[in-house]
Write a structure and sequence with these properties.
342 residues, single chain, mainly alpha
Length: 342
């Protein structure tokens, strides 16, 4: 009897955990208000009360969303090993390849830290240079952490806009870089490297995929939660203490220079989505324009000085500068476009 019941324990535990997740998520606002104004208690409408309520509400909300989405994406990632990704992109034409590379970049477990081995592996496997860049742009910029935080804090419309524009930047940038024929500006030793094909891996069972989802939660959420707390704390300070419309004067639609300045500030900052998006939420709440804030966030997540240093091992300076310039141009276009239309 016990042996028959054992296989049911994991599905029942999963269902119970999902029900608890939903119940907690739906009651966060009431709990945050009770903690802030009844338990502490802080005066309603005060700067400190507003900042504390923001922090108490957003912290568990963001962490709950991260756990749910990272678990799901962890399962999806079991279908995409580096070797399988190389095979999918090898032999594709420039147009189809850049689109496929950008889409794969959103679900595969690679970031700018993986740039060198991935670049070598893709180029030596016959993946066109522009296709490789399309992948390297979308992988860090359009990731599950960014999308889940945007969805949780701003709703599906803003998350969808970010997803669409991020993919567009990756696709167009990859296509342009491919058309420029910049292969001579890749370090010669990259083409001399030979990457041996890996043996086909056995297809994991669903129990293994679920385990991979759990491990992804422990790994990713375990690494980013300090950035979540720091970002939300900064956002709470902006939310509670920065005067209304102050940000509109320096990051609003009326200041034409705000978008390029936001990009210039964002590149050397080098943070991840978990740390920067709560700050973005607070900036928008204080009157900053959506296009300017999106450009700022994309430059922080998608372009960074450490990435340039890593890529210097395989790319010559002219190609790095061209890569950064084209991506930055796409980010600027997104910022100006959204400020003009929204």
């Amino acid at each position: 009897m016990t042996a028959k019941r054992t296989p049911l324990l994991k599905p029942l535990a999963f269902a119970a955990g999902l029900a608890a997740w939903i119940w907690i998520y739906l009651h966060l606002a009431a709990v945050a208000a009770w903690i802030t104004y009844r338990l502490l208690p802080l005066p309603r409408g005060s700067q400190l009360g507003s900042a504390v309520e923001f922090f108490v509400f957003e912290t568990p909300k963001v962490l709950l969303l991260l756990v749910a989405v990272v678990f799901g994406v962890g399962i999806v990632r079991t279908f995409f090993t580096p070797e399988r990704t190389r095979r999918l992109l090898s032999g594709r034409g420039q147009a189809l390849g850049t689109v496929m590379a950008a889409l794969l970049g959103t679900v595969t477990p690679f970031c700018s830290c993986s740039a060198v081995p991935l670049f070598i592996g893709f180029v030596t496997a016959g993946v066109p240079l522009g296709v490789t860049f399309s992948f390297l742009i979308s992988a860090p910029m359009v990731n599950e952490v960014a999308l889940v935080l945007l969805f949780g804090l701003f709703g599906w419309k803003v998350a969808g806009l970010y997803l669409g524009t991020g993919l567009l930047i990756a696709i167009v940038s990859g296509w342009i870089l491919g058309r420029l024929r910049l292969e001579p500006h890749v370090e010669s030793w990259v083409y001399e490297t030979r990457v041996h094909a890996e043996a086909e891996e056995a297809r994991p069972a669903w129990a293994d995929r679920m385990r991979a989802g759990s491990e992804a939660v422990r790994d990713i959420v375990g690494r980013v939660w300090p950035y979540v707390l720091l970002g939300i704390a900064v956002g709470a300070g902006i939310h509670g203490y920065v005067p209304e419309n102050f940000m509109a004067s320096i990051m609003g639609r009326g200041a034409w220079w705000s978008v390029p300045v936001a990009v210039l500030i964002g590149v050397p900052m080098y943070s991840n989505a978990a740390g920067i998006i709560p700050v973005v939420q607070a900036l928008l709440g204080k009157g900053a324009a959506l296009g300017t804030v999106l450009a700022f966030m994309m430059s922080v997540i998608g372009l960074s000085l450490p990435e340039a240093i890593i890529l210097r091992k395989v790319l010559k300076p002219r190609l790095i500068a061209t890569f950064f310039g084209i991506v930055a141009g796409g980010i600027l276009a997104v910022g100006f476009l959204f400020n003009a239309l929204l």
